[in-house]
Amino acid sequence: MRQLTCLLVALSLVALSGCSSFKSSSSPSRWSGQSSKASSSPSRWSSQSSGGGAAEATDETAYMRDVRETVAAVAEGGGGGFEVMRQVGPVAASHGITDWEGNPATYRAVGAGLAQGGLSVDSFERVSHDIAAGSEVRAKLLLEGYSSPQ
């Protein structure tokens, strides 16, 4: 909950200031190899996972599906970036994921959900700006998901 509050405060500051040089607290280097789920598998989201294979892929696929569907519903209802991120936290928690803000799969799934929800390119750019919070990496992941929704 504290992470969500911090994210919302950071997103609010970026949106209010219009600052594009906001430095996110989640650096891209955190995204490779660190755990996004409190479990016995420290490499849960790493592409260099040692074991688990199909079960881990299924867990990530289910997480991404649930995020995509949740975000699509928010987008269809006219919700913006802040509402999208407010809804992602509980989905991540239901999957046991605690560091969803540092998980690249989250942003790909959010982008896919925005596309599935029917956001126009202009609306996507506005909403993704709020969600990315000045992070070029997050913006790229959102665009990847939006460009090729599953």
Which short descriptors sum up this protein?
150 residues, mainly alpha, 6 helices, disordered N terminus
What would you note in describing this structure?
The protein is mainly alpha-helical and 150 residues long. The protein has a domain at 52-150. It is built from six helices and no strands. The chain has helices spanning 2-17, 53-76, 81-94, 104-116, 121-132, 136-147. Helix 5 runs antiparallel to helix 6. The longest helix has 24 residues, at 53-76. Mean pLDDT is 73; it is low at 1-51.
Concise summary:
With 150 residues, the protein is an all-alpha fold.
How is the topology of this model organized?
Layout: H1 2-17, H2 53-76, H3 81-94, H4 104-116, H5 121-132, H6 136-147
Helix pairs in contact: 1-3, 1-5, 2-3, 2-4, 3-5, 4-6, 5-6
Relative strand content: under 5%
Biggest sheet character: none
Give the fraction of residues assigned to helices. Answer: 55-70%
Decide which structural class fits the backbone.
Answer: mainly alpha
| Low-pLDDT runs | 1-51
Cα radius of gyration in angstroms = 15 Å
Overall pLDDT: 73
Shape: globular
Number of helical segments? 6
Task: State the distance separating the first and last CA atoms.
Answer: 29 Å
Reading the helices and strands in chain order gives HHHHHH
What is the oligomeric state here?
Answer: single chain
